[in-house]
From TrEMBL:
Reaction(s) this enzyme catalyzes, per UniProt: 2-phosphoglycolate + H2O = glycolate + phosphate
Name of the protein: phosphoglycolate phosphatase
UniProt xrefs under InterPro entries: HAD-like_hydrolase_sf, HAD-like_sf, HAD-SF_hydro_IA, HAD_sf, PGP-like_dom2
GO cellular component, one term: cytosol
UniProt entry tagged with the keyword rRNA-binding: no
Record keywords: Hydrolase
EC number annotated for this UniProt entry: 3.1.3.18
């Protein structure tokens, strides 16, 4: 079966503001205030919790590896407690997924977000039924860009890795797709916009409305 696998943060859903809020909770607890900006630092947020802590401490000239590791569990706790306050799907995301399913595609998520958080986010947004197949950062002993995470997502969706594509937004997603030997489509509406084209994807996606036809062109039926 033809399969489309999606990254989650920065691809299907803009989660940057809730991620930044969790990091800022850690900084406030140390008397540093709200160090990161939910809009200007969206790209930092999509690199993960430790990246946000590293960037924030660097800006303040306070904290190092010990502080980052100490605050990381606190960041996860804060994020889990308010995971879908500001997060919103990108325009047309769920409609495109449903259209793909109606055309006979299997669909799945492959993310470096911990699996429990990915599931909770989808549940709180009321969209877990749309994409219930999720492989997260801790589902397997490895995580992206290890191709096994992607391949496992395809298998769990009932698809064929040789007839699949990955839709993402970062260099990690590109490296994952290349390692798995599948086409990579990058979205042009994330924090970096069209700048992600520098990563040399097989295709760029400017709006989710275009995805079903693009998937058909990359994975012809038959």
């Amino acid at each position: 079966m033809r399969t489309v696998v999606f990254d989650l943060d920065g691809t299907l859903v803009d989660t940057s503001a809730d991620l930044v809020a969790a990091a800022n909770a850690c900084f406030r607890a140390r008397g540093l205030g709200d160090v990161l900006d939910p809009e200007a630092d969206a790209a930092v947020a999509f690199r993960g919790g430790r990246a946000m802590l590293t960037e924030g401490f660097s800006r303040c000239g306070a904290g190092g590896n010990a502080e980052i590791e100490a605050d990381y569990p606190k960041l996860l706790e804060a994020y889990g407690a308010a995971i879908a306050v500001h997060s919103r799907p990108y325009d047309g995301a769920w409609g495109a997924v449903e259209t793909l399913k109606n055309r006979g595609f299997a669909v799945a998520i492959c993310t470096n977000k911990p699996e429990r958080f990915a599931i909770r986010l989808m549940e709180e947004m009321g969209t877990f039924h749309v994409l219930p197949t999720i492989v997260g950062a801790d589902t397997l002993p490895v995580r992206k860009p290890d191709p096994e995470t992607y391949l496992e997502a395809v298998r769990r969706a009932g698809g064929d890795p040789a007839r699949s594509i990955f839709v993402g937004d970062t260099e990690t997603d590109v490296n994952t797709a290349r390692a798995a030997g599948v086409p990579i489509v990058l979205v042009g509406f994330g924090p970096e916009g069209q700048g992600v084209s520098r990563l040399g994807p097989d295709a760029m996606l400017d709006h989710f409305a275009d995805l079903p036809d693009l998937a058909d062109s990359l994975l012809p039926a038959g």
